[in-house]
Amino acid sequence: MSLNRKLYKGEDLAMRFEQFGGRIVRLCEELPSTRPGKHVQDQLLRCGTSVGAQYSEAQGAQSRRDFVHKLSIALKEMRESRYWLGVLAHADYLNGMLSVSGLSDEANELVAILQASQSTARKGVQS
């Protein structure tokens, strides 16, 4: 039963990353075609859609050490996504964009989840 519950949580989190990536794609489509808009679009599209792929890779890790490493890459990409969302917010690009409603909050939650997961997983890895 415990194994099934863990599997469900992992699949639920994977779905959240997919949804986050989809929302990032929609947001990037709404950004202006100006030089700054394109720059942020490229950066955010890359990191915001790679988080789920990195998490998926971690799920298939060959060892706990490999899992921790791949999870750390997902966390790095999630933090970068959060950064670019902040840049957009400070540049007032996000005003009136429906696709960003709660996106920064979701980014913060996903960073916290990945940090906690990484911390827990590291406890089982000896340096």
What would a concise description of this structure say?
This protein is mainly alpha-helical. The chain has helices at residues 2-30, 35-59, 64-90, 103-122. It has one domain: de novo design (two linked rop proteins).
For the secondary structure, the number of strands is 0
CATH superfamily: 23S rRNA-intervening sequence
CATH level 1 name: Mainly Alpha
Mean pLDDT, as a whole number?
88
The helix/strand order is: HHHH
Tell me the structural class.
mainly alpha
* Range of strand content: under 5%
Uncertain regions: pLDDT < 50 for 5+ in a row? Answer: 1-8
Global Rg: 16 Å
The number of helical runs is 4
Task: Please name the CATH architecture.
Answer: Up-down Bundle
Work out the helicity level. over 70%
CATH topology: de novo design (two linked rop proteins)
Whole-number count of domains = 1
- What characterizes the major β-sheet? none
Anisotropy-based shape:
elongated
First-last Cα distance: 31 Å
Task: Provide an overview of this structure.
This protein is an all-alpha fold and 127 residues long. It has one domain (2-122): de novo design (two linked rop proteins) (Up-down Bundle), CATH 1.20.1440.60. 80% of the residues lie in helices and 0% in strands. α1 runs antiparallel to α2 (35-59), α1 (2-30) runs antiparallel to α4 (103-122) and α3 runs antiparallel to α4. Residues 1-8 have low confidence and may be disordered.
